Automatic annotation (TrEMBL):
It comes from the Bacteria. SUPFAM superfamilies: Composite domain of metallo-dependent hydrolases (SSF51338), Metallo-dependent hydrolases (SSF51556). Signal peptide: none annotated. This is Guanine deaminase. GO terms for molecular function: hydrolase activity, acting on carbon-nitrogen (but not peptide) bonds. The keyword Lipoprotein does not apply. Residues 55-437 form the Amidohydrolase-related domain. It holds the Pfam family Amidohydro_1. Keywords: Hydrolase.
Length: 496
């Protein structure tokens, strides 16, 4: 049985009409867009949706997030990244989360994502103190159950934590240095073996919706052999290799001190860049770094909400566009942005760069922002041929908005209103692989209310655990503050 949408306003995000709304009918068969045009065939037994007063768009792509942080939503404020990580990704007094907690956390995160129109997640699953096969399976299982599309990572750090930051050891007591330095870490071979097993167990599961991706945490947090090996394995498996690069000024200082170069130059010299590589953040790049990114076909996930909240800076939007670099949009985790809703990120991206450049010709255009939120994000995830636009042969991941709501009243330029006006009140249906997974705010694939009740019942115990871990790590707050202030004052030289 097929689904047919008749005479709707449609934003296809394809090469022909882009973000310009057009009137179209769409036929979906077997989870695929079978026809799209002025009219399409309607057959007996088809489910027909009247497109009158409806806007149909591609599903949104969250090109960088961390589902771990679902448990930390709304917990911290006014902390730069290096101090914020002490609490959201603590290094003292932390125990692994049980698989049942991971499953519940992932279900809640996926439900909020779907009900806001996000149909694809790039979930960089950074478990602390480290990821197990059971935890990874719990994430894949939850996403399969709820019906979302996702790239799910094996995130890895295999450099001693205190070696990833400048100056900090001079401020720490010796016993803390010994305790943190004694933590066990994976070798590159162990991580690559884990990833090969993950590919065998999880890649292309969920009817092809779910994929495994490599995720070396950052160039300062991984050994050279792991950075090279992860890049090579990603290329061999046509998978995404997702890596945090130059999110903060402190990281630019770290590159300068460790290598006398930028981290982009360092990765290039290691042969650890490819078209499968996505940089999360990519803020503190030099002009020559951006040339290297473009030359190697590297993509960038732009995370303005998180970057503003943590005071990290802003990615050079127009410079990336000028070099032809593919951009996606990411929420980052719910501890640093407090939301999985990509439309909030899209609005922020459309607005914040207008105050960084006095030339309005260089400000983000709505079509550019929507491209990053849809087909650009899909390309960063190695899914550009699969989703991100409404085209014949692509998977039927799409959204249906009610245009009679206050958010679209008066009805004007629908592409602009999608970015600037829509607040979630207008979203009627969400489809993934041609299957209706959200109906008027309710997830249809799982018992949403039962999951939320279970999650709420669990949270007092989780909050007690978080409070205890916060107290244990607070001993690091003053030394890390000193490190941060020293890094802020350090004069950058490499590539500048």
């Amino acid at each position: 049985m097929a689904t047919v949408i008749v005479d709707a306003d449609v934003i296809t995000m394809d090469r022909d009409t882009g973000a310009t709304p057009v009137t179209r009918s769409i036929r979906i068969e077997g989870g695929v867009i079978a026809e799209i045009g002025d009219s399409v065939a309607i057959r007996e037994g088809d489910t027909v949706i009247d497109g009158t007063d409806r806007l149909v768009t591609p599903g949104l792509v969250n090109a960088h997030t961390h589902s771990w942080e679902t448990l930390y939503k709304g917990r911290y404020d006014n902390l730069p990244l290096e101090l914020w990580m002490l609490y959201s990704y603590p290094i003292l007094g932390i125990e692994p989360l049980p698989a049942d907690v991971v499953r519940l956390r992932s279900l809640v995160f996926a439900m909020e994502s779907l009900t806001s129109g996000v149909t694809t997640l790039v979930d960089d699953v950074l478990e602390t103190p480290g990821q197990s096969a059971g935890q990874l399976a719990a994430v894949f299982g939850a996403y399969d159950e709820v019906g979302i599309r996702a790239n799910v990572s094996g995130h890895v750090i295999n450099v001693p934590f205190l070696d990833t930051l400048p100056f900090v050891t001079r401020w720490l007591p010796d016993e803390i240095v010994r305790e943190v330095g004694g933590q066990s870490l994976l070798t590159a071979d162990e991580y690559l073996a884990f990833s090969r097993e993950a590919f065998a167990s999880h890649d292309r599961t969920g009817g092809g919706r779910l994929r495994y991706m490599l995720a070396p945490s950052a160039p300062q947090r991984c050994t050279p052999d792991l950075l090279r090996g992860a890049t090579e394995l990603a290329v061999a498996r046509d998978a995404e290799c997702h890596i945090h690069v130059l999110e903060t000024r402190t990281q630019a200082v770290t590159a300068d001190l460790l290598h006398g170069t930028t981290f982009v130059e360092y990765l290039r010299d290691l042969d650890a860049l490819s078209p499968n590589t996505t940089f999360a953040h990519g803020i503190w790049l030099t002009d020559s770094d951006i040339d290297i990114v473009a030359e190697h076909g590297v993509s960038v996930s732009h995370n303005p909400l998180s970057n503003m909240k943590l005071g990290s800076g802003l990615a050079p939007w127009r410079a990336y566009h000028d070099r032809g670099v593919t951009l996606g949009l990411g929420t980052d985790g719910c501890s640093s942005s407090d939301t999985p809703r990509i439309l909030e990120v899209a609005k922020a991206a459309a607005l914040v760069h207008k105050i960084t450049d006095p030339d309005p010709d260089r400000w983000p255009r709505v079509e550019e922002v929507l491209t990053a939120a849809t087909v650009g994000g899909a390309r960063t995830a190695r899914l550009g041929d699969t989703v991100g636009s409404l085209e014949v042969g692509k998977r039927a991941d799409f959204l249906v908005y009610d245009l009679t709501t206050l958010a679209f009243t008066p009805r004007s330029r629908l592409d602009h209103q999608w970015v600037y006006s829509e607040n979630g009140s207008s979203l009627e249906y969400v489809y993934v692989d041609g299957r209706r997974v959200v109906d008027h705010g309710q997830v249809t694939t799982v018992d949403q209310e039962a999951i939320l009740r279970e999650f709420r019942a669990m949270m007092p115990r989780i909050a007690e655990w978080q409070d205890a871990v916060d107290r244990a790590n607070s001993v690091l707050h003053e030394p890390f503050t000193r490190m941060y202030r020293e890094a802020v004052a350090y004069p950058l030289t490499a590539g500048r």
